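Weekly structure sync - notes
Attendees: PM, LS, DV (DV joined late)
Agenda: review two folding runs queued last week.

Item 1: First target. Sequence and structure tokens pasted below for the record.
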Amino acid sequence: MRLSCRLSGFGRPLVLLFAAFLFGAAARAAPTDAPLSVTLTGHEYPPFMGQQLPHGGLLTRIVAESFKAANVQVKFLPVSSNNRVITGVMTGLYDGAYGWAHAPERDRKLLYSKSSIYTFRMVFFQRRVKEIAWNTLSDLAAYQIGATLGNHYSEEFSDLQARKVLQVQEAASDINNMRKLLLGRIDLFPMEEEAGQMLILNSLTPAEQVNLSFQARPIALIPTYLVLRRNLPNAALLLERFEQGYRQLNDSGQLARMVGETRKAVMASAQQAQNKRNPP
């Protein structure tokens, strides 16, 4: 009996120690990042996003793969216009979006990723018969300039527009502005360089396309980000996960390869679609 009592008393610490060891091993074996999910909105903005684009477009693939690498499932919800996207996120209608720049009104209502996911090159599109030179944006005070609701072109552009130095006509969509440009109702229209070229290729006839060009000089280089509404549960954690996945892809070189591959696929798809619309 004595021997049994001694063994029983001595064994309890061993059992507790063994249990603690098993618990610690299980904790180490368990994934450190529990699965999360988020719904992001986007609009048609080739080559960066679009339902029919390979991989959903350049930015869609960057965002999807960055979150995937950090164990976050993303659902992409298409919205009809860029203005609906950003106002919907700011009012809490949607979780978040991507490909958006810092702007004062947005900064008060949104959380941004630390890393910029892409830098937009903003340029003026114009008619070939009326090419317009300028040194500073204020030099353009005499011209009619188109703008799309919800878009941000640069801090300087916004300031000059607010002070009425620039004559800015706002329209609901980029294609509306391109058509106004063709008709001579505006003289200039600022847009991201690649996106503007893709819009012209996808939406205008070959006869219309040859009448438009874009300026080599950029208005601004605009870093764009993943954005989430401030009151979204786990918003800070989701941004942390995104940063983790994005850095992993970038540091490995996979991000650059992915962007190049997607750009080629999107351009090839657009060219094939144009050939079908306008056979030789």
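Item 2: Second target, run right after the first with the same settings.
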Amino acid sequence: MKKFLTIFCVLCIAHCAFAKEVVVVQKTTEPYLGNASQACERKLIHKNIEVVNHLKYFEVKKDGKVIASFDPVNIDRNSLYIWAELSPNGKMLLFSTSDQGVFIVNLKGKILYKLGKIARATNWWNNRYIVGMIDEDDGDNFTKSDLVMIDIKTGRQMPIETEEGIALYPCANKPYIEYFTLDDKKHTVELRIEN
């Protein structure tokens, strides 16, 4: 009986941990004629800390003085650090590489989370979740793209339901995200995570 209760408790805890979903609370749409891939403002300054992305390495400055410089995943010569952004609390740096995917490091360059090629155009929603897109293309045009919220601690992906077939370049600003569609529209949705 004790073994059964232990297994039951483990299953209940696992269910609670994985039963979360992202719910769209409200949505607005407006025309957008800019470059959607560059629309998201990547925050690299938090209070007196600034991160400079030199594409092949990062520098961390405090009050204008360099306090750290690192190439955290030793990218190869054909790769770059892209989509870099500081976490809302200013303690973690999110970035991607074209060859290895998504990483989160501390401000000394120590890898905290290696998420792999889980999504592209990722950015912070809060200190635990990031948003990004999972897309496909034919070499010239997007053929599919879905938005996803990712729990950095577990790597669990939660789809963000959109009505459009191709949703691109999400920009998070909790509780909202903006995303773009091929018909030159910007969509803003309010999100909530529910169990």
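Discussion on item 2: DSSP finds one helix and 16 strands in the chain.
Action: LS to circulate a short write-up before next sync.
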